[in-house]
Amino acid sequence: MRLDKLLARLGEASRSGCRELLRAGRVQVNGETARSGAYPVPEGAVVTLDGKALDCRMNRYLMMNKPAGVLTAREDAWQSTVMDLLPPVYASLGCMPVGRLDKDTTGLLLLTTDGELAHRLIAPARHVDKVYEAKVEGALDQTDVEAFAAGIPLGDFTALPAKLEILAPGVGLATVREGKFHQVKRMFGAVGKPVKELRRLRFGPLSLDETLSPGDYRELNDEEIAALYAAAGMKHE
Questions:
Q1: pTM, rounded to two decimals
Q2: Which is it for the CA torsion 171, 174, 180, 147, positive or negative?
């Protein structure tokens, strides 16, 4: 990759700003001062700016504990989004949410720069489980468990059979294999138990890191990344 393109992708400066950095001799590649934007950066090279090594990874994988009140979107003209909670480098690299959580839904949200991985993880044909903790109005009972297991008609589609575990009279764990708009809320609403609070605890092989406060994030480790690719039926190099 060209050095000016790399610096721009990392959000260090605009393409024109990168040229100024290079002319000033502030950038080094493997210890050698680089003054041309066309300088080819080999894979695994150490690139420094003002003596500080840059994280040159193009692919990123994040787990966020999404708070209530923010949109799951790349950007929005009027409201805060999950991307506003991250350093700008992630947007520069093209990081995107995997699927969507409603504005008032909290919990595990995955983000990645790998569009194919994101697409496969949310594709209905993959049947990747998502687990939600729901606090509802009224008391859940065995009838609700059976309704979830049978598949619930929702007007425009019938939800696939899902698992409902009752934790307390007004608290349940729902495991679904789809992720359609407001699906979990609609399923509980269809059995007469409107959702008051909804939190996603698990997405495929990954569970929410409970050490993350609402709005916090961390990058996934190698084992977690490999597990996601396996769930998507992909090989990870």
A1: 0.90
A2: negative
Judge if 143 and 97 occupy the same domain.
Answer: no
Element (H, E) at 197: strand 195-203
Residues of the chain with pLDDT under 50: none
The answer to whether residues 187 and 213 belong to one domain is no
**In the beta sheet, which residues pair with residue 175?**
131, 163
Active site residue 4: no
Domain, as residue range, for 175: 129-203
Is residue 138 located within the same domain as residue 198? yes
pLDDT at 77: 86
| The pLDDT value given to residue 53 | 93
40 and 20 inside one domain = yes
Q: Which of 84, 102, 104, 216 is the catalytic position?
A: 102
